[in-house]
Design goal:
The chain is α+β, with helices and mostly antiparallel strands. 21% of the residues lie in helices and 33% in strands. The strands form 3 sheets. It has a 5-stranded antiparallel beta sheet with strand order 5-6-7-8-9, covered by helices on one side. Strands 2-1-13-12 form a 4-stranded mixed beta sheet, with no helix packed on it. It has a 4-stranded antiparallel beta sheet with strand order 3-4-11-10.
Length: 167
């Protein structure tokens, strides 16, 4: 009896966690391989306004990748590209983040906080450079940059910044 109760509890916890995930999009169309055929959201909005970019979000190795500069600038953030190190430094609100092309973690620094060592945050996929644009995985929008993502969307990645305070 206890084993069954623990299993049901674990399943409920997994469902609860997945329903609050940054990737709670509506199910993609079915087919021979629905995950492989799912292009991901093709439009991004920030605070209800469509983000203009010459590069649409795309799936890369199962991760939804979004154009960093377009999203950050739409939210009023600042972004700097360092060609020599292939790094992007983002300033949003009270934090600075550094994304390096080819790395699957990014450094997050909060204004007024002293760090003994770099505060590295893991991402679902490494940042990539495509058509002179840096793409980051959508999970980094929430865990590093502080956006919230409206769940249940299929064709639109609906972002809010700053994220509403937890209640």
């Amino acid at each position: 009896m206890k084993t069954w109760q623990h299993s049901v509890g674990a399943i409920g916890l997994a469902v609860a966690i997945s329903s609050t995930s940054a990737f709670a999009f509506a199910a993609p169309p079915t087919g021979a391989n629905p995950v492989q055929n799912y292009p991901g959201p093709q439009t991004v909005t920030v605070n209800g306004k469509v983000v203009t970019s010459d590069l649409a979000p795309r799936m890369v190795d199962g991760a939804l990748m979004v154009p960093l500069r377009a999203v950050v600038e739409a939210a009023g953030g600042d972004i700097q590209w360092d060609q020599q190190t292939q790094a992007v430094v983002v300033h949003m609100g009270q934090s600075f983040s550094t994304f390096m092309v080819g790395r699957d973690s990014a450094e997050l620094r909060k204004v007024g906080v002293m760090y003994i060592k770099p505060n590295m945050v893991q991402m679902q996929h490494a940042a990539v450079l495509t058509a002179n644009r840096t793409l980051i995985p959508a999970d980094a929008l929430t865990t590093i940059l502080g956006f919230s993502i409206k769940p249940g969307q299929y064709t639109t990645l609906d972002l809010t910044w700053p994220a509403p305070a937890a209640q």
